[in-house]
Every structure is written in structure tokens, then in C-alpha cells.
Automatic annotation (TrEMBL):
The gene is clpS. InterPro entries: ClpS, ClpS_core, Ribosomal_bL12_C/ClpS-like. Residues 1-22 are annotated as: Disordered. Belongs to the ClpS family. NCBIfam families: PRK00033.1-2, PRK00033.1-5. GO terms for biological process: protein catabolic process; proteolysis. Binds to the N-terminal domain of the chaperone ClpA. GO terms for molecular function: peptidase activity. Residues 23-102 form the Adaptor protein ClpS core domain. This is ATP-dependent Clp protease adapter protein ClpS. Involved in the modulation of the specificity of the ClpAP-mediated ATP-dependent protein degradation.
Length: 106
């Protein structure tokens, strides 16, 4: 019998798999918080204006926040989420409403 590698005797092999590295960017939930003072109509307008929701969707989310204390308005990449939060907070500040909007990694 030959000592060449034409059979499996004593052979070892290492199989390495390289993961295709197509990492998706992390997503962030943008949430609206309830308070006792911000008018419901203002919250609905904010949802329509900055999140592109229709009137019915906006009323539904506003009522969820009103009843449960908070709701996720949408899920976005970091910079988009940051911009939405800043737009809501600036609009609330300009109109002197205590409305709070935050983001959190999903
Ligand atoms: N709770 C407010 C009210 O009764 C309405 C409201 C809803 C405020 C959603 C903030 O994110 C909010 N006028």
C-alpha cells in the first residue's frame, strides 16, 4: 500500500466557512409618550406631518399613547429616527406643549 494520500488514513482537514458579511444597520423604535396637557389634535397633526401617517392611523396611535402611556410610531435607521425625534421635539417646543418623543434600539 502506498503512503500517498489516496486514502483517508491519518488525513485531517479543516473546513472553514466565511460568512457573507452583509450586516444590516440596527433599527430604532421611535416612541411617543403620553402627558396630560398636549392636545390630542396636536399629536394627530404631528403624526401626519412627520411620520406620513394618514388621519385614521394617526388617531389610532394617538389614542394608544393616551390609553397605554406610550406607543411605537415607527422603526427607522439611526439617522432617520434621530431626525423624527428632533422634528417632534422642536414642534412641541415651538407650540409650548410638553409632548415627548424618544428612540430606542430595537
Ligand atoms: N393625554 C393627552 C390629552 O388627554 C393626549 C395625548 C396623546 C398627549 C398622546 C400626548 O403622546 C400623546 N390631551
Amino acid at each position: 500500500m502506498s503512503d500517498k494520500d489516496d486514502d483517508a488514513e491519518g488525513d485531517t482537514s479543516v473546513v472553514t466557512k466565511t460568512k457573507p458579511k452583509t450586516k444590516r444597520p440596527p433599527l430604532y423604535k421611535v416612541m411617543l409618550l403620553n402627558d396630560d396637557y398636549t392636545p390630542m389634535e396636536f399629536v394627530v397633526l404631528v403624526l401626519e406631518k412627520f411620520f406620513g401617517l394618514n388621519h385614521a392611523q394617526s388617531v389610532e396611535i394617538m389614542l394608544t399613547v393616551h390609553k397605554k402611556g406610550l406607543a411605537v410610531v415607527g422603526v427607522f435607521a439611526f439617522e432617520i429616527a434621530e431626525t423624527k425625534v428632533a422634528q417632534v421635539m422642536e414642534s412641541a417646543r415651538r407650540n409650548q406643549h410638553p409632548l415627548q418623543c424618544t428612540m430606542e434600539k430595537e
